[in-house]
Records
---
Amino acid sequence: MKKLYSTMIATLAVFAVSGNALAQAHDGAGHGRSERPGEHRGPGRGFGEPAMMIERMAEHLELDEKQRQSITNIVEASKPEFAALRDAARDNREAIKALDVGDPAYGSELQNLSVRSGELAAELTLLTGRLRGEIAAILSDEQRQLLEERMSRSGEKRRHPGRDRAR
């Protein structure tokens, strides 16, 4: 159950950061975004937008206003850290792509960049874990249980698409 809860919080954290980055990168024309703020034309209901994800979480868990604001603050405060990790990971991937396979130092350079990739993944895991813990501290025992149950059903749908969804 903790794994499912962790998955939900990790997903929220990752999409909180990447959703805003994608929204800022596109001008709204195409890309599933409308010209009006808050309106989403693409598949799903605003998947990846932190405000929408927090709103759905608030609805499903019946968060009070204080909890909702606390979670929003946690997500907002983590954005710079996630952005820095995302940028560092992108730079690392670009450096790997730019390596010359004919260069005698190719193997050692690739090794160094691979190690850096692992370090960035570890930093992301730790940041996500910290965020998960901060959010968990805000929820009641009942809300944590409800979240775990919901994530369990959601995870089952992802693992076994096409199965009876009336579970």
---
Amino acid sequence: MAAVTLCALFAMLGVGYVWYKGQIVTLGRQIKEREVRLAELQRDNRLRRDQLAQLCSPVELDARVRKLGLPLAPPALSQIVNLVDTLSPGARSGQAMTSGGTSNE
């Protein structure tokens, strides 16, 4: 009776070992697939970031305005409004603010 129990125990251990090895292989494959996907997404992000920088450049914007025939021009001096900063010099540099965002006074 003890030999049968011992044999069943070893068989169960063997099945468990094989199952764990299969899980390790499956997880390794999933990790590799996700690493490849991450690299693809990072490459796509780089390409799109570069494309956005190019499309936002003043030279490119000027070219598109001319190509589309948009009647855009710099604003007239009468259309420009200058704003004056009324904060004290200490408050502007952040000296009067604490880390909580409130005034010390």
